[in-house]
């Protein structure tokens, strides 16, 4: 297996650099071909390294950085003034081909601004998009984008998102011809604003997409489509709402199994089913939103991500690196959008 190098910004999350220690250990144990560059202050990087078993430390190196982008910092300020930050250094490593991709749990706005500036978008893509997978009622996952990279989108942006989402699902989800849909307030042709209607017309003209039309919010999780496209404002709300519902269901299940003696007894027999349900709905395994449309791989981990969630973000980076996702998107964009 070809060596994979990941630049990991461990400084920006809510929980501190230590949250990555078990995730890094697990990744290096499972993937011996992976090398992780810790982008951090020297003391934070050294503290993390001491928590990693000694036999794995050869798979680690440090890119010492003096600055840290905090969660409250404005993206424009971070872009101008934080050139020596852990976030910027991770992106620079990717841009200079010293790393194959980067992962950060830092300030989302700052990461998007820096990534766009440092890596640039692919030819034919005007804006990158944040995309992540969500569970469905069937044994498959659906991709939802945009999740907040661009609050306001025009029809051309939505068309580009559809193409990129289709490529990502085809690559990572192993779906030969992903079904693509537009998120709308109804499935009827008369529903939606002018941007949605224009995007619908553009998608219908795109021969390289299996576009099936509009879907409503509750259809996201039905398992009938593979890619759901929307603007960043709506997508972010849909994502956060789904995560909240998943946590509510998990907590309710835990509470109900403890309420009475009978419930506690029954829960022991139901434990395998409950564990399976928990695993399917646990938001941690869906951590790792891809910032696609750039000339490099960037994975955004939740700022408040747990150690398990950080592991899944790193695993997502490895998958996209091995699949050469930006190259696949470039090829599809050139074929479907730039040749016409």
Automatic annotation (TrEMBL):
Membrane-spanning segments: none
List the GO cellular component terms.
cytoplasm
EC class of the enzyme, as a word: transferase
GO BP terms: fatty acid biosynthetic process; phospholipid biosynthetic process
Main location as per UniProt: cytoplasm
Q: Name one Pfam family in it.
A: FA_synthesis
As recorded in UniProt, its EC number(s) are: 2.3.1.274
- So which domain of life are we looking at? Bacteria
Keyword Transmembrane attributed: no
Q: In what pathway does it function?
A: Lipid metabolism; phospholipid metabolism
Where it sits in the cell: the answer is: Cytoplasm
Per its record, the protein catalyses: a fatty acyl-[ACP] + phosphate = an acyl phosphate + holo-[ACP]
Q: Listed GO molecular functions?
A: phosphate:acyl-[acyl carrier protein] acyltransferase activity
This protein's UniProt keywords:
Acyltransferase, Cytoplasm, Lipid biosynthesis, Lipid metabolism, Phospholipid biosynthesis, Phospholipid metabolism, Transferase
The protein's matches in SUPFAM superfamilies, at most eight in alphabetical order, are given as:
Isocitrate/Isopropylmalate dehydrogenase-like
Give the family, as the similarity comment puts it: Belongs to the PlsX family.
User: What is the role of the protein in this entry?
Assistant: Catalyzes the reversible formation of acyl-phosphate (acyl-PO(4)) from acyl-[acyl-carrier-protein] (acyl-ACP). This enzyme utilizes acyl-ACP as fatty acyl donor, but not acyl-CoA.
Among HAMAP family, the record links this protein to:
PlsX
- Subunit field text: Homodimer. Probably interacts with PlsY.
Q: What is this protein called?
A: Phosphate acyltransferase
